Each structure stands twice: as C-alpha cells, then as structure tokens.
Amino acid sequence: MSKLISDILGAKEPEFSHRLHSWEQLAGRPGVDIRLSNEIRQAAKSIAGNLGLDPRDTTTKELYHALLKRAAEDSNLLSAKLGIVDEDDPTQMLDKCVAYVNGLDIPKYVWVVKASFLKSCLKARPPKKLMRLLGLRSADSMLKRDDIGELLVLANLVEKKEWTDKFAQSFAKLKPADFDEREIRIASLSGRRTKVLRSGGHDLRELFFVDRSAGVVVAAAPEKRFGGDVLLILVQILQAVRELRVHSAYSKHLSVQPDFSEKFAKLLGSNTDQAAGKDFVAGWSPFHRLTSHNPSVLDYFHPHIAAEDFLVPNTGFFIDTALDSPAFWQHTSHVALADGFGVVSCNVSDVVVSLVNSHGIGDAATYSVRRGLWDELWARYLVYEDVHQHVLSDD
Predict the structure, then answer these.
(1) d(C-alpha 133, C-alpha 142), whole Å
(2) What pLDDT score does 251 carry?
(3) Cα–chain center distance at 212
(4) Is-contact 300 392, C-beta < 8 A?
(5) Alpha-carbon gap, residue 395 to 391, rounded angstroms
(6) What is the pTM of this model?
(7) DSSP for residue 345
(8) DSSP per residue, 31-79
(9) Comparing C-alpha atoms, which of 225, 229, 209 is closest to residue 353?
C-alpha cells in the first residue's frame, strides 16, 4: 500500500490499508494506489520546476514558500484583471469578485426547493429576531422585498437553534414536485446589513454562507483588505458553487426513495459526503469524478440524474483561465508532498488559506487536497466493474 497517500490523507491505520487491500483484490490487483502515488510525486516535481525550483532536490519547505509566493502574485494579477485597486474598500472588492464569477460560463444549475414553498414556510414561521435586527416590520413586506435565499442564510445565522430546528420540520412533507431547476444565485451582502450583523455580535469571519435548499451563496465583505484577498474570495465562491452542485445531484438520487423528505431534511444539516456515506462507502463526490473515467456508471442513476448533474467547476482551471495563463493550479487538486515537516498541499484552495492566515508549514491547510485525493483515489478504483458494483450494491 502507498505510504504517501496514507500520509497525505492522514488516514487511520491499519483500517485504511485494509480497505485499499480489499479494493485492490476486487479490481484484480492493478496497483491503483501505487500508480497514483507515483503520479503525485511527478506532478509535485513538475510544480516545483514551474516555480523555478530544482525538482530533483526541492524540500517541502522550499515548495511551500514558493507556492505561497505564487498565490500572492496570482492574487495581484487577478486584482488587475477584475479592475480591483488598492483604494477599493472590502465591499467594492467583494462586489467585483462576485460579478466576475456570475459572468463565468460554468455549470450553475441546481435542483432546489421551489421559492414559493420556502416563502410559505417563512411566512408560517417568520424569523422574528432577524426581522427586528434588520428593521423589517412584517413577514409579508420581508418576503416581498428580500431574496428568499438570503433570508434563509441570515435566519440560520441569527436565530436560535430552537427556531432552526422547528423550521427544519417544514421539510417533513416535501415531495419531488416541490423542487425545480434554478441557477445558483451568488450575491454579496450589503454593507449596511454586514455592519448591522457584526454590531449585533454575529460572526461573519467565514465570509461565505450557503443555503442548499434555495441554492444561494451569500458573501459578506471582510472587515478590512488583506494580502491574497481576491484569490481567496474567488476560490471560495467556486468552492461554494461546487458544494451546491454536489448536494443537488445527491438530492436527486434520494428523490426516488420513499423516505425522501426525511432524508432531505437531515441532509440540509450535514456534510453531503458524510450523509451519503451510509449508502456509498466512498462518499458521493467520487461519483462526480468517476463519470469522467467511466460514463457507464450513469446508467445506475438514470433517469432522474443526467450527465450534466455530475459536472462541477474545477477551481484551479477557472483561476488559470481568469489569469489567461498556462495551466498551473488546475492539475493540483489532489497533489501534495509529505515528510517530517508535515503535509504540503499544492491545491490552490489550501495554499491561499495558508497564505492569508500566515500559516507556518506545520500548520499548513490540507483540507482541500485531502478531499481531492480521497475522491480521485476512489474514483480510480470505482472504474473497475467489480468494485463499483460492490459499492453500489451496498446502498
């Protein structure tokens, strides 16, 4: 079994190696993990060369600091591309980033709850604390003036758990007929509302908030500008779009099951892959990657899930496209190196998080590369008929 993959994933051993061994046996011992491990090493050497380092003896420390430098430079290039200048305040910077992503030609349609259903739910159980905070006098005027997705995001942020739990009960009788296809709405919170929420003691440090029932991404401007902010904002918007697309496809999968409404309500409050783990041992995301290797697996999900449902934005690809530069970030989603200093991720999402938080190598962000590698590893095993039939037969 590959030690590099286990180290990058921070896998629990020996359970991880036992699982790989069983899947290798089912696949006919093709050595998927060894080949992938070698590819990762070669990709890391190529990245080091592109960064001006000697790929033969680059240390993880050298690679890490070169990646941070590249991310900072790319954020500056993106600022110029989007017309963002140093004098722009955080709200102006955010608005330009949101406008840019809204103009990108990427898969944005999702299967979400109809706005009419969500409005009736909010009217029946209005978020009174939020209404007082925003100076909204009645549920009718609130629903007439405001976007339903933004209201749901803010209500879940402001209201107590008692309200959110009761509101979740509104989905108990949902049926597939209560859903439709809509384009993801990406919006920035107004400066006034951002100020009101922060002055009310509500934490907006995450900057991005998603409501999966409505298919909306709401961004809040940071309190001040910082190095790497433009790259961070663009990466996180693209990640949010990806999350909504993954959630949408899994919701469609659940829609043909008799207990759909109950499962959908639980899904809204949990991570999609964790929720799907009860049905798919590899999680749900690997099936998105699998379709690029083996489209025949789509037959299992037809007719309610189509090929376009499995298309998700490649964050690195769109960053490279925005920069009008040769591919650099798009092939790094599952590439990392590991040694005594720790795991160094080449995934742009991790690199920019480490940059803006001034992480040392020992604290470097690794969430995105681990998720990317997990998905890539299982997708490669799922190509083999005996493996994916074994996984699908367990749902």
Answers:
(1) 12
(2) 92
(3) 12
(4) yes
(5) 7
(6) 0.91
(7) E
(8) -HHHHHHHHHHHHHHHHHHHTTS-TTT--HHHHHHHHHHHHHHHHHHHH
(9) 229
